[in-house]
Amino acid sequence: MEKKKEMYEGKAKKVFETEDPEVLIVSYKDDATAFNGLKKGSISGKGVINNRMSNMLMAKLDKEGVPTHFIEELNDRETAVKRVKILPLEVIIRNISAGSFSKRYGVEEGIVFEEPTIEFSYKNDDLGDPLLNAYHAVALKLATWEEIDLVKKYAFKVNDFLKAIWKECGVTLVDFKIEFGKTSDGEIVLADEISPDTCRLWDSKTHEKLDKDRFRRDMGGVEEAYEEVMRRLSEKA
Ligand code: UDP
């Protein structure tokens, strides 16, 4: 599998075409951004960790009945994935209050919900990824009701799976963002990545933050946190 033309460069990854029109190669960078690209920086070794972690988790999710775009890890930073059309929806599941939820509703971080919540935002950088509900998404033709029902079902399944695996690692899954795509056969699959860039992960005992919030909030120890969660996951998985 070889990289041909660069198709797209995002904030944290580059995407390349291959000789197979149905297969793309993603290449994970160390670049980090936050606050809709306002804050820029780099987290050394992040690309390697996110590549490996996302692939490990997606390979397991595939076996759990959540189809994903993952095909094969090619090297430290590069992975072959199915070409999909990304649904322009960020799907966010929360188990504990934090981040924009706390800000929006004026509540402290750390409230443990009895049931997970789900929300969508419209993937649109110019608009700052505004929150929307399923009716809005259908009205804007971002997805059909059938697709939204499937995405919801998969997202809660991903939550159950990730919560359990992180718990074994002594890590609490606070919230996460996932994205879905549609293959050329019309199948909805989990795409993008699952990593400390896209999940809030707290040490279960100390509640220490082990994710991108350390970068967003200039807390230091960013690289160490990514390495720590990767180490714990590798030992358990
Ligand atoms: N998230 C993400 N990309 C985004 C926005 C959020 O990966 O563009 C993740 C974030 O890391 C967290 C979860 O989604 O795990 C919920 O984020 P929130 O809505 O609280 O937004 P934030 O506080 O990160 O702006």
Architecture overview:
The strands form 3 sheets. Strands 8, 9, 10, 11, 12, 13 and 14 form a 7-stranded antiparallel β-sheet that branches. The chain has a 5-stranded antiparallel β-sheet with strand order 1-2-3-7-6. It contains 6 helices and 14 strands. The protein has helices spanning 46-63, 99-105, 134-139, 145-168, 213-216, 222-236, and strands at 6-9, 13-17, 23-28, 31-34, 39-42, 70-73, 78-82, 85-86, 89-96, 112-122, 131-132, 171-182, 188-191, 199-203. It folds into 2 domains: 6-82, Phosphorylase Kinase, domain 1, CATH 3.30.200; 85-236, ATP-grasp fold, B domain (D-amino Acid Aminotransferase, Chain A, domain 1), CATH 3.30.470. By secondary structure, the protein is of the alpha+beta class. Strand 6 (70-73) and strand 7 (78-82) form a beta hairpin. The mean pLDDT is 97. The longest helix has 24 residues, at 145-168. Uridine-5'-diphosphate (UDP) binds at residues 90, 92, 98-101, 129, 175-177, 198-200, 212.
